[in-house]
Automatic annotation (TrEMBL):
Keyword Cell wall biogenesis/degradation on entry: yes
Keywords for the protein's UniProt record, in alphabetical order: Cell shape, Cell wall biogenesis/degradation, Isomerase, Peptidoglycan synthesis
GO biological process: cell wall organization; peptidoglycan biosynthetic process; regulation of cell shape
Originating organism: Paenibacillus sabinae T27
Catalyzed reactions per annotation: L-glutamate = D-glutamate
Taxonomic lineage: Bacteria, Bacillati, Bacillota, Bacilli, Bacillales
UniProt keyword Isomerase, yes or no: yes
EC number: 5.1.1.3
Matches recorded under NCBIfam families: glut_race (TIGR00067)
Name the record gives this protein: Glutamate racemase
Amino acid sequence: MHQALRLLPNEDYIFYADSLHVPYGDKPKEEVRQYIFEAADFIASQGVKALVIACNTATSIAVQDLRQKYDFPILGIEPAVKPAVQQCEGTRKKVLVLATSLTLKEEKYHNLVRSVDRHDIVESLPLNGLVRFAEQFDFSEESVLPYLRDQFSHLDLRQYGTVVLGCTHFPYFIPVFKKLFNDDAEIISGSFGTAKNLKHILESRNQLSDGTGEISFYHSGRKVEDQATLTQYHRLFRMLDEM
């Protein structure tokens, strides 16, 4: 959403957070799949011209089936493994992919890694706990740093040249990640590429708007109207602006 607003500031948006059912990353696949289709059905009923699945887990589980059901463009997001591998090739450094356990289990992710990781430099680690921190709006170093140190305790973080944030919650923790990895380690995500692809698709279909950039927020199909929650969302966008 943040990257889309930067590239397409004149579009009007629906932001759908499935707050009743998060986190997805540690739930059974079929249960999550049901939630995804319920969300997509609601979004489709709003008359959208494109849908961005801003969740790596949901993309890996359902994007192909969703594309068969609906006639508008559906964009997924996936861990930015390919550019990460390209950056590390020839440097003797490895790539570390951080995501939810469900994303990392899916065949879609394994196929992606197999297609680009010719020198066996990609490693992965599930960090489901970070999703819970984000859903509680807790981005504090005091809470997050001990959790990450524990999760990384078996790794030599100096080995990694690129860290891939394979969950759209994770960019909020970039300041904490930077305290753990070497200064020359690059931290990337797939959000920019997805937003860039959205712009390209709308341009090719002659569907760019001259709207106001209005965002309608929904929690599992219920429109968010209380000012405290709306203020919290806009604070989250400002946080990303400052990173």
